[in-house]
Automatic annotation (TrEMBL):
Swiss-Prot/TrEMBL keywords: Signal
Signal peptide annotation: 1-27
Gene Ontology molecular function, alphabetical: hydrolase activity, acting on ester bonds
Source domain of life: Bacteria
PROSITE patterns reported for this sequence: PROKAR_LIPOPROTEIN (PS51257)
Transmembrane segments: none
InterPro entries: GDSL (IPR001087), SGNH_hydro_sf (IPR036514)
Gene3D superfamilies: SGNH hydrolase
Keyword Signal appears in the UniProt entry: yes
The organism of origin for this protein: Pedobacter nutrimenti
Record-given protein name: GDSL-like lipase/acylhydrolase family protein
Length: 430
């Protein structure tokens, strides 16, 4: 006890001390509430698998948010939880980006880890297969609409590594529900818009809204049954984050590019960048246009060719794949809003917990202190996003785990302890 005052009488001090320091117990006894966490499974994509730094590797898998949740669930009756880890001698999985230093202008230097990968001998596509029980069914690259496709295992090596020859054509939804479970988390749908956004609107097409609603309802209707032989399951679903608010789109900006150009030899006085939007002719970029994180690593602004300096002349504009123009930003926002409306509606219809990942990542992305650690969406220094600018750091995944835990506790009256976020790192420095 720390006293603010000095008392001359030792007796008075002793008496006061006894009264003031009477033990006060204010602890919460862990409780499962109305849920059963005996067998928890996690359904989702790369964010569920622990994907980070542009790859799936063992350290990322060990820091996946479902694993963190499952560990906390053990205090309220949760059972064992297995993630399909890569073997120690193939710990680098698909390979991943490592920060190796910084250039004189402060931009980061990264390299791709290429040792101890998990590819099968003679293949650069398919991984060594995993055998054993699975609770974490996170599959990088999977869309919601892929979950019911027979033969999807032949198209996605991250899913294929979980299968055998006999189950190779099994749809993802059938696979995750092939065993009984009592509780699930589901975070699918991100990739139904992500590819369109990260390609600058030049590649993938967003999933049709009506189809998204149809498949989302189907998947949840099967999960709440609790799997083959199950007696029903409760669970938590999550909204889709706004990809335009990630470090992938908020690091390379019109202002930062122009500043770099003007600071370079012969670049003084440049006031405009030119882009090729999704539709129409080349035009001047505005602050409403978002540039991809990959622009400056792939292209050199101002580099001359026969059509003029790259990005500085309307005859040689920045290609559409490196910029999500303002009209494409509006498309992304529209689809994210529609998908999230579906997710909220289905969560309500099936009486499930809802984790608003969209709001959560915006809140932390704007800057927030967590147990003395500052978290923000700033690339590298913000602790939230990994080196690919989309996926999270271990600290970011711990924050996500707490978002899920808080949603579960609020819905089911449980008291699962939250994760100590400060035990997990941000971007790993060299």
């Amino acid at each position: 006890m720390n006293s603010k005052y000095f008392y001359k009488s030792a007796l008075a001090l002793a008496v006061l001390g006894l009264a003031a320091c009477k033990p006060s117990v204010n602890t919460t006894v862990p409780s499962k509430g109305t849920a059963d966490f005996t067998r928890y499974i996690a359904v989702g994509n790369s964010l569920t698998s622990g994907f980070a730094d542009g790859g799936l590797y063992l350290d990322g898998q060990k820091n996946c948010f479902p694993g963190m949740i499952a560990e906390q669930m053990k205090t309220v009756g949760g059972g064992s939880f297995t993630t399909p880890f890569f073997a120690d001698n193939q710990a680098n999985g698909s390979g991943y980006l490592k920060l190796t230093g910084f250039n004189a202008n402060g931009t980061p230097q990264t390299t791709k880890e290429t040792s101890n990968l998990a590819y099968r001998p003679g293949s650069t596509t398919f991984f060594t297969r995993y055998s054993g029980d699975i609770n974490n069914y996170g599959v990088p690259g999977i869309k919601l609409i892929h979950s019911t496709i027979a033969g999807y295992g032949t198209l996605n090596p991250y899913y294929e590594r979980m299968l055998t020859d006999a189950t190779l054509t099994t749809p993802y939804l059938n696979f995750v529900t092939s065993k009984p479970f009592t509780f699930f988390s589901m975070w699918l749908g991100n990739n139904d818009i992500l590819g369109y956004a990260t390609s600058g609107g030049a590649g993938d097409t967003p999933t049709d809204k009506a189809l998204f609603t149809q498949v989302y309802n189907l998947v949840v209707s099967q999960l709440v049954k609790g799997g083959t032989g199950g007696n029903g399951a409760k669970g938590v679903v999550a909204t889709i984050p706004d990809v335009t608010a990630t470090a992938f789109f908020r690091t390379v900006t019109l202002k930062s590019i122009l500043a770099a150009v003007n600071a370079s030899p012969g670049g003084a006085g440049v006031t405009d960048l030119y882009i090729k939007p999704g539709t129409g002719a080349a035009r001047k970029a505005t602050a409403e246009d978002l540039f991809t994180l990959t622009l400056l690593s792939d292209r050199t602004i101002g580099k001359p060719d026969a059509t003029g300096p790259y990005g500085l002349a309307p005859t040689n504009p920045i290609e559409n794949q490196y910029v999500l123009d303002k009209d494409e930003v509006a498309v992304v926002n529209d689809y994210v809003a529609s998908y999230n409306a579906t997710i909220r509606s289905v969560a309500s219809a099936y009486n499930l917990a809802l984790m608003d990942a969209n709001a959560m990542l915006k809140e932390y992305g704007a800057g927030k202190e967590v147990n003395g650690a500052l978290v923000s969406g700033a690339f590298i220094t913000g602790n939230l996003f990994s080196l690919d600018g989309i996926h999270l750091t271990p600290m970011g995944y711990a924050i996500t785990a707490n978002g899920f835990i808080n949603a579960i506790n609020a819905k089911y009256g449980s008291s699962i302890p939250i994760v100590d976020v400060t035990k997990y790192r941000g971007v790993k420095f060299p």
